[in-house]
Amino acid sequence: MVQGYSGHANYNGGLDVARKVLKSDGIRGLYRGFGLSVMTYSPSSAVWWASYGSSQRVIWRLLGHGTEREESAPSQWTVVSVQTAGGIIAGATASCITTTLDTIKTRLQVMGHEQRHTARQVVKGLIMDDGWKGFYRGLGPRFFSMSAWGTSMIVAYEYLKRLCAKE
User: Fold this and answer.
1) How far apart are CA 125 and CA 38, in angstroms?
2) CA–CA separation, 61 and 162 (whole Å)
3) pLDDT tens track for 111-136
4) Is residue 5 part of a domain?
5) Which residue range forms the structural domain that includes residue 19?
6) Which of 55, 101, 103, 143 has an alpha carbon within 20 to 30 A of 134's alpha carbon?
7) Cα separations in angstroms, 36 against 98, 103, 104, 139
8) Is residue 123, in this structure, part of any structural domain at all?
9) pLDDT tens digits for 49-75?
C-alpha cells in the first residue's frame, strides 16, 4: 500500500509480501499494528453507531415523523433516504473524530525495522513536521471511505432486516 512510486515496488503481490514479512519478522510481523487497529476501530465504530442513531432521530423529526402531524407510514424511498443520509452523517462524524488515531496507527504500521518508534514519538514527530494539521492527513479519503462504506453497509443491513421481518 505504501511501497513507493510506480515502477519501484518492493513486493510483487500479496503472497510475496507475506513471504518477505515472515522471513524478516516472523509470524509477529503479520500482526504489526493489530493492537493499534483495535484501538482505532473500536472508538470509530462506537462513534459511527452513536452518530447513525442520533442523525436518524433528527432527520425523522425534521420530516415530521413521530409527531402529531404524522398521517401515514413513510414510503420505502423515504426510509432508504433517511438511512442513507444517516450513514453519510455517521461516516463523516466518525472520520472527523477518529482520523487522528488512524494517522498515528498508520505511521506506526508502515515504519521500517530501523525506525521502531513509540506512539508518543510519532505524535511528537507529526507536531514537529506539520503542526496539529498533520494529524488530519488523509482526512478526505477517510471521510469518503467511511461514509461510502457505512452507507452501503447500513442500507444493505436495513434492507435485509426488512426482508426477514415477519409481518
Assistant:
1) 23
2) 22
3) 766 677 888 888 898 899 888 888 88
4) no
5) 15-165
6) 55
7) 13, 11, 9, 18
8) yes
9) 999 999 999 999 999 887 666 567 888
